[in-house]
Every structure is written in C-alpha cells, then in structure tokens.
Automatic annotation (TrEMBL):
GO molecular function terms listed in the Swiss-Prot or TrEMBL record: ATP binding; kinase activity
PANTHER family in the record: PTHR47508:SF4, SAM DOMAIN-CONTAINING PROTEIN-RELATED
Stretches assigned to the Death domain: 989-1055
Species per Swiss-Prot/TrEMBL record: Elysia crispata (lettuce slug)
KW RNA-binding (keyword) present: no
Sorted UniProt keywords: ATP-binding, Kinase, Nucleotide-binding, Repeat, Transferase
Listed EC numbers: 2.7.11.1
SMART domains attached to this UniProt entry: NEUZ (SM00588)
Name of this chain's protein: non-specific serine/threonine protein kinase
Keyword Magnesium: no
One Pfam family cited in the UniProt record for this chain: Roc
Length: 1343
C-alpha cells in the first residue's frame, strides 16, 4: 500500500509514497490517505514516528470519498480532521490516545472486517474495534491525521499471521480474521529440541539450563520426553530462565479469561476530554511561540461572530465559539492583528487560555532564576530549563512523570515479552529414529548434543548399526534430517541467508578433555575448527549457529560460564524467530487452555464431536473455523488431528478422532518400537512374540501386552494412525485362509530382522531390469521403512501374500510373472537398489533365469516408486531430493581397485534414467554411451510420424548452388541434422551417407556444388523417395548404421514434436491401470486419441513437463476416480491444473467412492455429472459385459460433445459403415451385422486402418495403392484382418458375399443379436457417435 498524492500542506512523501512525514514546525496540516481503497480482511501495518514538542497523537479514520475530490473542492483539505471532517458525511474517525502510541517506533495494524469493524492492534496487542458500522459495500479509503506528537507514518508489512494459517488457504484465513475481530493476544513460544547420541548428556544439559541440580544417576530417556518447559523475559539477563510451573500457567489462564472483547476502543467521554486537552495545549504552544518571536504582541480570545458560519451548521442551535488573535500590546498600531485559530469551541478556548497563562508564568519564573544565577557568578542555566530554549515549546501534559512512563513500559515489556520454551528431550537409541522424524518441526530451536571426548574423525563402519556411527556422521545425519523435514525461509527478504530452524552444536563433558584449563581450551578450539571446516558446502550450513558451544553439565565449582553464554544465545535467537509475537485469537487461546487442562487430567483422546463442543463453549461454532483451528494446532504439534482430505486409512476414520496429548502418542509409538515379551511368557503367545522379534509381524493378540491400559477403540485408532504415518501396514491373508488365522496382524518395517543369506532372497541375473534411486547424500533409515510399508501394501493390493521381508531388503509380488526387490545400499551411499525380475518360469532365487521382465511391469514399478516418494516429500520430508538412474557400463577404470568396469558399489557411477530413455546417446564421465540397453526395460512410446508431405517438393537444380538461401522454408530439424553431418568424421559425413544410400557419382558431384551439400543431400533424399514418413524412417536406418546417433536424435525429437496432441487426457492412479487401458482402447477405437502416461511416456520422459504439455493440448480430461486417486497429491495437481486451464472434466468412477469424493477434489467435482463404472451387471440385468459396453458407449458419447475424432475409427459394432442406398435394406444391414460379429473384439492399431476416412464416400477408390501396400507391410495386424477376410469369403459361415444374399442361418431372422442385446441399425445410429464412411480400396472391398 502507498499514500495518496492528495495530502495536507505540511506533508512530504518519500520512499515511493510509502512514508509520509509532517513538517517539524507545526502540529497540524498532516492529513494523508491511502492510494487504493481498502479490501475486506486486509491487514495494513503502519510504523509511527513520534516527537515531544506538542501534544496529542494520530487520528485514524475511514472515508468513502475519493481523496482526489477532496483536494479539488473549493474548501480543500482542512488543517485538522477533528472536528471538521468528523462532522461531514462519508467520514468516520477516532482519536488514538497518546499514551498508546508514545513509543518512538510504535507499530499499528488495522484490519477492516466484513462486519464493518476496523480492528486496531498496537505493538502486537489487540485494542478492540476502533470503528463500527462501516459501509463495507462501498469503496473506503484509509485516512490518517498526523497530529501533535505523531509526525510520520510508514507502511510496513504485517507478518503476524501464522504461516500455518496462510498455508491452509483462504477459508482458514477468513476464519482466522473473523476470530481475530473478537480479540487477539500475541504469543511468544517455541520449542527447544535436544537431540544427540545416547549418553551424550542431553537430559543433564536440560537440567543445567533450567537451573536444576545435576543427577549423576540419570536414567535413559525412552522415546521423547516433553514434560519440561522453561521461560525467560526479553531485555533481562540469563538469570531470568526458570521452569514453568502450574501456578504460573493458572495465572496466565486467569489473565486470559479476564481479557474480554474491548468493543469500541476505550471510553468515549475520556477520549473527548483527552482530545480537548491536546487541542488546547497545541493552541497555547502555538500562541506562546509567536509571542516569543514578537514580544510586542498579546493574545486576544474573542467571541466568533455568528454571521461567520452561514452554512448548514447555522441552522438550529449553535454552540458558542471563539477566535484566537494576536494584537499589538500598545496603542501605536491598534489595527494590527494576527489570526491564530478561528471558530474554536469556547471550552477549548478557555482551556487554552489557562494553559497559556500557566506557561507564561513558568517562563517568568525561569527568567528570574536565570537572573539570580547570573548575579551569583554566571552559573549555568538550570537543567530544568526547557531544552528547546526560545524556539521550541515545552511539553505540557499536566507535568506527566517521565519516570512513570518508563515504569509503565517496563511492566508492559515484562508482562508481554516472556518467551516460553517447551523442551523436547529425544532419546538417543537408534530404535526410535523412525518415530522421531514424525515430530520434527520448523517452529523450534535445535541443540545437537555430542560428547567432546569422542573422536570426531572416527568413520562409520557399515557393518555396525547407527548407534556406532562416528560423531561427525551422527551430526551430519541429524542436521540433514532437520534440513529435509523442517527447513524454511520464513523471512521474505532477498538479503536473508539464514534458514529456519536454527541449530546449535553443543559439546558436553568439556572438563574431561584434559586436566588443565589451557589444554582444554586448545582442544575445544581444535574441535570447533574441525566442525566449521566440516560444514563448508553442506546444504544445512545456513541453519547452524556458530561457534560450537562447549559446556560442562556438572562443574566442580559453581555454574559453568559457557552455560550462561548458551542461555544468552538461545534467548537472542529465539527472540528473532518470525513466529514469536504472532497474533492468536483470544478465544482460540482459551480453547487451547481447555485442551491442555484435559491432557493434564489424563484425558489423552477425544472425538471430533467432543472437541467441537469444547470449541463451541468459546464461541467457535462454524465448522470451517473448527477445522482451521484443529489444523493450526496440529501443525504446531499441540494436538494430533488428520482431516478427511489427508486420511489414507479406510478401516478407521482418523478425522473423527483427536489426540489431546502428544506425549501420550509418543509413548504409544515408543512401546511398539521397543516392545519385548514379559518375563512371564505365556505359551500361547510365545510364537507371536517370536514372530514380532524375528520377522517384524505383530499379531493383535499382543496388543493388550504392548498397550495394557488402552481401550480397544483407542488401539484401533493408534494402528490406523501409524498406518497413516507409514510406520506399519496391515498384513493381508491369502484368499480362503482367514479361518486358519482368525486375528489380524501388521508388518512393522522398523522391526524387521536382518537378512542372514541374501542368496535366499534373490539371485540377480543379466536379464533383470536394474536401476537405482539416489537420494543426494540423505537416506535416513526411517524413510526406507516408510517406503517399505508402502511397497508391501501396494504388493498385497495386487495379490501378493507370501513376501520376503528383512531389514533393508524386501522382495514383493508385482504380478503373476514378476517380483520386485528393494534393497537399501550401504548407509554411506544413500541409495536404493531396484530390481524387477521375471519369475514365471523360475524362482527369484534361481541364477538360471533367462527371460527379461515385461516393460509394462517395469514402468509400473517405477511409477509406483516415484508417486510414493513424491507423496512422502509432500507430506513429511519437504526437501527430499532423489533421482532415478541406471548404473553406467562404460568400463571406466576404477581408481580404487584399478579394474575396468568395477562392480563394487563404492565405484559405480550413474546415468540419469529420464535422460537415457529420451536420448539415443548420453555422456558419462568417461565416454558417450548408447542407451538401447536401457530402453529395453521400459515401454516404447507410440509411433510418432511426421506430417506428410514432410517438406515442400523442391528440385536441387532450382536451388542454384545455395539451397539454404533459395529454400528458406526447410524445417529446422533438417538444417540441424545437416549441420552435424557437415562436421562429422570422414566415414560418417554426408559423402559416406550418400554412398550407402546408393547415390551415383554424378549425382554426388551435383550435390557437392551446393554451399551446404549435407542439406542438399537430405532434402534430395526425402523428396526423391516419396516425401513420406517412410523416407525419414529409411534415412534414420542409414544414420544409425553409420553410427550417427546424435543426428538421428534430432530427427526423432522432431517426429515427437510434430505429432498432433491427443484429444483426451486420461488422469488416473496406477491401481486401476488395466481398467484405464481398456477405456483408452475403446476411445481410440472410436477415433479419439488419448494421452496416458504408460503409453505416451513409457515411464521415461520428464513427468511434469509431459503432464503439462498433455493437459494444455487436450480437449477433455477424463478423471478416473478411485479412493487412491482422491488421496494422491499428483492426481490432485493434475485435476487442479485442468480446472485452472478451463478444460472440460469428465469424472468416471472406477471404484466405489463417496460423491463428491472427500478432499480438495470435491471443490472441482461436486458440480459435475459422473459416470459410475461400478455396480454393473447383476440379477435381472443384461449381463456384466453388456452393461460395461453401455458405460463405454456413454463415455464415448460424452467425449464427442467436446471434441471430434482425430483418429481413424476401428471396424467395430459401434462404428458400422452406413449401408449403400441402392441396396436392399433387408440384406445390407444383415451383412453389416454379420461382418461386425466376425470382427467384434478385434483391436487393430491405428495405422493399419488409415485408409478409413470420415469424409470419404462409398464407391470411391484409393489412388495411392503403393503407399497403402507399404503400410500394409509395416503393420502385422492387417495380415490378421486379411486372414479373417479369407475365412469370410471362403463361405465358412454359410453365406455367399458375392450374391449379397443371406445365408441359411441368417435368412429372415432380422438383426443379429450380440451379447444378448439387439444390435439394429437404428440402435447403432442413435449412439450419438460419428459414423465412419469407408473408401473403395482394398479395405473397402473387404467391407
């Protein structure tokens, strides 16, 4: 926002009209306006400047009049808003008490609500509704009167709205703003997260920071301990740190309860008195200044003549007023007068006269004191003399005590700027790392604690577990975890280079480094230097607060000075966090207090309805506000609640439950991660405990032992929540085996046992599809556990049951012919090995498997893994970086082992998978690598053909030796290929290509005369060989034969770009790939080209760019709705992009789901009519197959409303050629139907029926038989069709087509019956689908 160019005469605008400053020699003429009208719920921030020369403060108001009209009017802008503008229509204004804005850099925030209220916030404190009843349907401008001691105002950004509210979107923001209109409080709190290795001293550090005594027998922390919190006051030293006790929380609650809606700011009577006092003081000061400059004048307070105001105000009663004049004090010039103010209310004039007399008396007394001091030896003027001397007016605020003001400010600071830190003490055992990642947040300050006595240079042995990793590796692990899960740049400033949250490195056991202090200091400095060197170039370096702090938790004498330094640094960093001081609605804080009280009473769990009732007690009634409230506190970690759009569980509705106590949830997770059998082992459960410990499979019969005090409904919720967090997944039993295993069980990846013999899991062969997922130096074990859980669930949903599951290695079922192996490589490599194996003939453990996997299955696996990682990044790990890659086989010499093509995992180097699948050649560190061996694992994209004719027909002889100049319209890909060909080596240049293509020497000489012989050769070849796509295909063959793969890449890319964009975009989730593929087949048979990622991309192209290209180029989006589709982030993005592009959307329900589906899609889909593919067939129906055909026909009909077929339709019953008019109607339809019966279900490729034309007429013969025969040879499916024609023409069905008469079995039976339904020509013609007319060529003769 900026200030309007229309403003008072004493105002100067600067800084791009965002700063308005009033002249220092006056207290009025300071009216300013906003440049633009205000918006509803717009928050405007203003920073005010203050002086001490006058009295009074800023007036804030609203006007419905355009500021331009005010300055162009006859009266112009008045000197003050009060009382002139306050009495005019279209102005609403209030005076701000000076005591509220007396600080030098006071900050105001104004919020115009939809209820017509102007809410006022001063320095983060809500002061109530400044104005009420504003006409929000009219355009309203902000009006400020920089009056008295307020001499400037600057627009500033308002950052006090929580980022979690902004991230929820406009509905949550509107609910927040509405709640703020009833009062807010600034909240200053954060978390202090203590993480580190086991026995590093985290708990002892927490006790030392909070002033507790050291306990040398401190036990180990289990899970996370959040039972402690501390507080400190800003502006004080570190001694103010103290534990937060319940009595202080009770006092805070009482203050919160006492805070009520202030309504209209303050009392009207007190404000009027204060305003009158300020006006009178300023008038007296102005008169006094003039008298000091001209002692020959005297003040004259006289009544205002009644005739002076002849406007509307003269009607009715008129309050008495006075004019203030300055006249000559002697009779020499009685006519000389100076006007100070006119039409001043008599009460204010009398008050101004009293103040003037009092100040004149003070001046006389001060002058007498100066004379006495001078006569006594020329002493200096007393310090009590006004600092402004003879030029500035003394302050008059009834001798207000400056000391009292300071005390008031100090009390306000102590009461309002206390920061509370909730301390989270993380256990150091490796078993808890997976659950720890769930609770990492950006609203925290992290202290990574380590033992200074440990060797920082110690490396991690991959054979050891995480608890034995080196100190530097451990620090790297935690800093990468914090960076990946919680990193944010909360300050929107280009100069800001610091990431949130901040991380402190704290070394403990300092005094154990050596015996003397000098050696200790030297060792500490060495470790600091080593850590700072280690941080160089790391992505998390901007989080770290340097230098490292070395402390001693149990010093022998007093408290360690370094602890005091650490407290000061923590206090300083905490006070600078952007979320400190956020405005939270008062009623939300009261709700928070109720939630905390319930948790303190041991109530850990509540239903959504119960929480809604608690919210209603605080006037939080609307569902939108309750949802925003719960999501906000969920993001803050103060409760746990998952909304319906993020709930992936189907057994339990997580949105109906709320966890009030996160500590209870942590304890429940901890018990699962560390559960062990009781000492008294029951024989009936011994095998269940063994199964959990060795295999990581938990039976529900163990739950009463693991969660002994938890009700059954709570257990169901906890299991569903852990499944939501991918900490476990349900175990599905084989079909028909439920009677043998009556209970339920779950896979828990964090508890899988180690693999003893990898050869019993799988045997890798050269025929297996192998690729890797590289995680850019950060692959926490918890992430692989989550990926394991999702993979196991995905496999079971596709029919997998007996899975091979181990710690860091799983082999699962993909389909009846394929298995998938996921293996976590050595921890320091940070990558996952993916192996897809064909196991139809031999087991996965057999090294004699010699059949490659199906490319569609490999693409299916890759797509699942990419979707899963994308969802994990969106939900949990914000900065997760990964890429799919192939191991390079370039035979590069290994420097470590001096072996070419070394297969050791540490020596492998990789090629980007997407780049390999989209290019003929890629470059690695060693040489150029051909990609055919990689592409075989993934489906080939649909054939892409250039438009014919490929180029404009030309003759080389007409180019006059410069084809590039005389034929400028040649395609760019042709010129690019010619450029590379000109610079090729001797055996790969244009001459070699011409010879291998059969050019005679005289023709080569002709081409050589051109300035660009390569371009002449390529052009001549394409034109002379038919100017068809076949010409380009043969050219590609010769280029590949010569090894010119880079030139072939250019042509292939041109073919891809030249392909017309598909008409229909199929948006789906991979769980229904087969059904969507069947739908695509029917649409393509109907002539509508389809975009489907498995067909168009083969899992290899850049996903995001291709999706964007497909969506932008399509005419219609078919959304294949399933429960997983609605929960998929990628599918949600596709649908939102389609809606933003205004693409028509056709919802097709593939699996049972409520309508509209829950989540963000409901906004788009709720108003659309969907087609339900479920519930077809059944008793009394026409059969599942027939009903399914009806659904497909309905989809085709709906698609045809938005686009026209762009492909040649297949010969199918749905698209019969219209019967020729001269023939008998009783014969031709039967022939047509008989033909459709014979061809029903036959799917040809699109190119094989390219002779069928929508615009063709029956009886018309094709003129280009040679071209048709060429295409016939290229498409094997046409041979199948011709063989079927031979069967028909040989009379196999008892009918002679030569005579056109019905056969003995069809005679007079009328229309044929297909799949139990009558297929008359009238039924077919009424389907609303364009009919295909067929030309009389070879295909026409068959028809």
């Amino acid at each position: 926002m900026r200030f309007h160019l229309s403003h008072g005469s004493a105002i100067t605008l600067s800084t791009g009209q965002t700063c308005a400053m009033r002249s220092a020699d006056t207290y009025h003429h300071g009216l300013v306006f906003s440049e633009q009208p205000l918006c509803i719920n717009q928050r405007l921030g203003l920073q005010l400047g203050a002086t001490t020369s006058w009295a009074g403060a800023v007036r804030v108001g609203i006007t419905s009049l355009d500021p331009v009209t005010l300055t162009t009017s006859e009266d112009g802008l008045p000197s003050e808003a009060h009382p002139t503008l306050m009495k005019r229509e279209g102005f609403w204004m209030r005076v701000i008490p000076e005591r509220l804005v007396a600080s030098p850099r006071c900050r105001l925030v104004l919020n115009l609500t939809s209820l017509g209220q102007l809410q006022l916030f001063i320095d983060g404190h809500h002061k109530g509704s400044l104005l009420l009843g504003l006409p929000v349907r009219r355009r309203l401008w902000l009006l400020l009167d920089l009056y008295g001691n307020t001499d400037s105002a600057t627009f500033v950004t308002t950052e006090d709205v929580p980022q979690e509210i902004i991230a929820q979107g406009n509905p949550a923001l509107e609910a927040y703003e509405l709640a703020c209109s009833q009062g807010t409080q600034p909240v200053r709190r954060s978390r202090l997260m203590l993480v580190g290795q086991e026995n590093a001293g985290k708990t002892s550090l927490m006790r030392a920071l909070t002033g507790q005594w050291h306990n040398s027998k401190e036990g180990k922390t289990a899970g996370i301990d959040v039972s402690f919190s501390c507080s400190f006051s800003l502006g004080r030293n570190q001694a103010s740190w103290k534990l937060t006790v319940k009595g202080e929380e009770t006092a805070r609650r009482e203050r919160l309860e006492a805070s009520v809606d202030l309504g209209v700011l303050g009392g009207a009577e007190s404000l009027v008195e204060e305003q009158d006092q300020a006006v009178a003081t300023n008038l007296a000061l102005e008169v006094l200044l003039k008298l000091r400059h001209d002692p020959g004048l005297k003040p004259d307070f006289r009544d205002t003549p009644l005739v002076k105001d002849a406007g509307p105000r003269s009607s009715g009663s008129h309050s008495p007023s006075k004019d203030i004049l300055l006249v000559a004090s002697d009779d020499s010039s009685p006519s000389f007068t100076t006007t100070v103010a006119t039409d001043i209310p008599a009460s204010i004039a009398r008050l101004a006269e009293e103040i003037l007399h009092r100040k004149q008396e003070e001046d006389r007394q001060r002058a007498c004191q100066v004379d006495r001091n001078t006569s006594q030896g020329g002493q200096k003027i007393s310090d009590s003399t006004d600092k402004t001397g003879q030029t500035d007016a003394p302050r008059d605020k009834e001798k207000r005590s400056e000391k009292g003001m300071d005390m008031e400010k100090d009390c306000h600071k102590e009461d309002g700027e206390t920061i509370v830190l909730s301390i989270w003490d993380f256990a150091g055992q490796a078993a808890y790392y997976t659950t720890h990642q769930v609770f990492l947040t950006s609203r925290a300050i992290y202290c990574i604690v380590f033992n200074l006595c440990d060797n920082l240079s110690k490396q991690w042995d991959d054979s050891q577990d995480k608890s034995q990793m080196g100190t530097l590796q451990y620090l790297d692990f935690w800093m990468r975890s914090i960076h990946a899960h919680a990193a944010e740049n909360r300050r929107n400033d280009a100069a800001n280079t610091v990431l949130s949250p901040p991380i402190f490195l704290v070394g403990t056991h300092r005094d154990e480094l050596a015996t003397d202090s000098e050696s200790i200091s030297k060792l500490v400095e060495e470790k600091r230097a080593l850590l700072e060197e280690f941080l160089v170039g790391k992505p998390y370096a901007q989080h770290v607060v340097l230098p490292m702090v070395a402390v001693e938790n149990d010093p022998l004498t007093g408290e360690d000075p370094e602890l005091s330094h650490l407290r000061e640094e923590l206090q300083n960093v905490a006070s600078k966090q952007s979320y400190i001081g956020e405005q939270i609605p008062t009623k939300w804080l009261r709700f928070e207090q109720d939630i905390t009280s319930q948790a303190d009473m041991g109530i850990n769990f509540a239903t959504y309805n119960q929480v809604s009732e608690m919210a209603a007690n605080h006037n939080i009634c609307k569902r939108e506000e309750v949802s925003a409230l719960l999501q906000f506190y969920h993001d803050l970690g103060m409760l746990v609640h998952y909304s319906s759009d993020t709930d992936r569980s189907t057994a339990v509705d997580l949105s109906s439950m709320v966890v009030l106590n996160p500590q209870w949830l942590i304890d429940m997770f901890t018990q699962i991660a560390a559960a062990s059998p009781p000492k008294e082992k029951w024989g009936v459960l011994a095998d269940k405990w063994t199964q959990l410990i060795n295999q990581g499979v938990m039976d529900d019969s163990l739950l009463p032992s693991i969660w002994p005090d938890t009700p059954d409904d709570h257990r169901s919720f906890l299991l569903a929540l852990m499944a939501q967090l991918d900490l476990l997944c349900p175990r599905l039993l084989p079909a028909g085996q439920s009677h043998r295993y009556p209970g339920h069980s779950w896979y828990i990846p964090m508890r899988f046992g180690p693999v003893k013999d990898k050869r019993k899991v799988y045997a890798q062969t050269s025929h297996d599809a192998l690729f890797y997922i590289d995680f850019n130096n950060f692959l926490p074990e918890g992430l692989f556990h989550r990926l394991q859980a999702r993979t196991i669930l995905w496999s079971q949903e596709h029919g997998g049951r007996d899975l091979c599951l181990h710690q860091g290695l799983v082999r699962v079922f993909v389909d009846s012919d394929h298995d998938l192996t996921l293996e976590m490589c050595a921890p320091h490599l940070h990558r996952v090995k993916v192996l897809v194996m064909h196991v139809k003939d031999k087991e996965a453990t057999s090294s004699k498997r010699n059949s490659p996997p199906n490319p569609e299955s490999v693409a299916k696996v890759r797509n699942f893994l990419e979707n899963s990682l994308c969802e994990l990044r969106g939900q949990w790990i914000k900065r997760l970086a990964y890429k799919f890659c192939f191991p390079c086989f370039c035979k590069k010499l290994c420097e470590q082992h001096q072996v070419e093509g070394c297969t050791d995992h540490d020596c492998l180097h990789f090629l980007d998978l997407d780049e390999c699948l989209t290019s003929q050649i890629v470059c690695c560190e060693h040489r150029r690598v051909k990609t055919e061996s990689f592409k075989k694992w993934f489906p080939s994209p649909h054939s892409k053909e250039l438009k014919e004719p490929v180029i404009s027909p030309v003759l080389i002889e007409q180019s006059f030796g410069n084809i590039e100049r005389h034929m400028p319209n040649l395609p760019s890909w042709l010129k690019g290929a010619a450029k590379l060909l000109n610079g090729a080596s001797e055996n790969q240049d244009w001459l070699a290509l011409a010879k291998i293509m059969g050019y005679k020497q005289n023709r080569i000489d002709t081409l050589n005369e051109d300035l660009n012989p390569s371009l002449a050769l390529l052009t001549d070849w394409i034109v002379s060989s038919g100017n068809t796509t076949m010409s380009v295909d043969v050219l590609l063959h010769y280029l590949k034969y010569l090894g010119c793969d880079d030139i072939a890449d250019i042509i292939l890319q041109a073919k891809e770009h030249d392909l017309e964009r598909p008409q229909v975009f199929l948006s789906y989730q991979w769980d229904v790939q087969d059904q969507v593929a069947a739908l695509r087949d029917h649409l393509e048979k109907a002539g509508f080209s389809c975009w489907m990622d498995i067909g168009q991309m083969g899992g290899g192209d850049q996903l995001s760019s291709k999706i964007d290209q497909g969506l932008r180029g399509c005419k219609l989006v078919v959304a294949c709705i399933t429960p997983k589709y609605t929960a998929s982030h990628l599918c949600n993005r596709e649908l939102w992009l389609a809606d933003m592009l205004h693409k028509p959307i056709l919802p097709v329900v593939m699996e049972t789901v409520g309508w509209p589906p829950p989540g963000g899609m409901a906004v788009i889909l709720s108003q659309l009519v969907h087609i339900d593919m479920k519930g077809i067939g059944g008793h009394g129906g026409t059969g599942i197959h027939a009903d399914l055909q009806d659904k497909y026909a309905e989809i085709v009909q709906r698609v045809s409303l938005h686009t026209q077929p762009d492909l040649v339709p297949c010969v199918d019953a749905t698209f019969l050629p219209p019967p020729p008019a001269p023939l008998s109607s009783s014969h031709v339809p039967s022939d047509s139907h008989r033909f459709s019966d014979r061809f029903s279900g036959y799917r040809t490729s699109m190119s094989s029926l390219s002779e069928v034309d929508f615009e063709g007429r029956p009886g018309q013969h094709h003129a280009q038989r040679s071209q048709f025969q060429t295409r016939q040879q290229r498409d094997a499916s046409l041979d199948v069709m011709l063989s079927r024609y031979e069967d028909i023409s040989s009379g196999g069905d008892g009918e002679s087509r030569a005579g056109g008469r019905p056969g003995p079995h069809r005679g007079a039976q009328g229309p044929s019956v297909r799949h139990g339904r009558s297929m008359s020509s009238s039924n077919i013609s009424n389907r609303g689908v364009p009919q295909a007319n067929v030309k009389q060529c070879a295909i026409c003769h068959i028809l």
